[in-house]
Q: What sequence folds into this?
């Protein structure tokens, strides 16, 4: 029994040590950020969200490229995976063409050097699969890189279906 307790204590100590060394990003809670820093970071994320919207509406691949991390990965509303290169190619070629994107219900939460954004978007436009007009909920994940810049690392969109268009 003492061998079991010794092993359990060592494992517990190892887990606690790992959490301490991993820093605030490991299990950080939104309330851990000082209020002034949280306000400043929220303002930065809001501006980046508007930049992302403008880049999509105007086909600005230079701006979009600066927003996306090199290892960016998206899950589109149709369930396909999309890398940074694919997202830029779709925007560059015109396969993604949006004429309207009205954003509402934006919520931003912070976890250490990560920001999680959820919103609703009313979209009018087309993509490689055809018409993509409708209402969508999305989640976008930003991470502050070593230079202190926020980069989009992940995106996922889901179409909001009404009772009239269930499939």
A:
């Amino acid at each position: 029994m003492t061998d079991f307790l010794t092993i359990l204590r060592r494992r517990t100590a190892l887990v606690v040590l790992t959490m301490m060394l991993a820093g605030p990003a490991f299990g950080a809670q939104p309330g851990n950020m000082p209020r002034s820093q949280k306000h400043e970071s929220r303002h930065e994320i809001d501006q980046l969200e508007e930049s992302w919207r403008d880049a999509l509406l105007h086909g600005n691949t230079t701006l979009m490229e600066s927003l996306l991390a090199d290892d960016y990965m998206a899950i589109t509303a149709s369930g396909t995976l999309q890398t940074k290169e694919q997202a830029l190619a779709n925007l560059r070629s015109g396969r993604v063409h949006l004429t309207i994107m009205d954003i509402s219900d934006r919520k931003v939460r912070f976890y250490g050097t990560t920001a999680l954004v959820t919103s609703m978007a009313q979209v009018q436009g087309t993509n490689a699969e055809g018409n993509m007009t409708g209402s969508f909920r999305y989640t976008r994940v930003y991470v502050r890189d070593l230079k202190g810049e926020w980069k989009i690392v992940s995106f996922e969109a889901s179409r909001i279906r009404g009772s009239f268009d269930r499939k």
